[in-house]
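User: I'm writing a tutorial on reading structure tokens. Could you give me a worked example: one chain, its sequence, then its tokens, then a sentence or two explaining what the tokens reveal?
Assistant: Sure. Here is the example chain.
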Amino acid sequence: QVQLIESGGGLVQAGGSLRLSCAASGRAFGIYAAGWFRQAPGKERDFVAAISLTGTGTYYADSVKGRFTISRDNAKNTVYLQMNSLGPEDTAVYYCAADPKWTLLVGGKSGSWGQGTQVTVSS
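And here are its predicted structure tokens:
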């Protein structure tokens, strides 16, 4: 497993942007697919975006497609989530996840999770 620490959350007005970062430590991060999930108050944790080991493959939830971009820098052991055109519906705690297996990652069954970072979008 790897240890994951998210940062970059905060309060932003509707229409604004934020960039989340997820720093990984421990085992070689380059063998892990990585992604982001989010959990709004009173709701289940939902998949947001995922990126393959090398960064050449990405996958997004329909709700964020065209607004969010996931990327990674394996030299820095970091995954990013650029969020644009934010709306109140994007308010949630955002979690970083990583797993060597893509299906486990996208299915929300990753072996490694961060503690989460709060994103609040005001209308």
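What the tokens reveal: The chain is about 5% helix and 50% strand. The longest strand covers residues 18-26.
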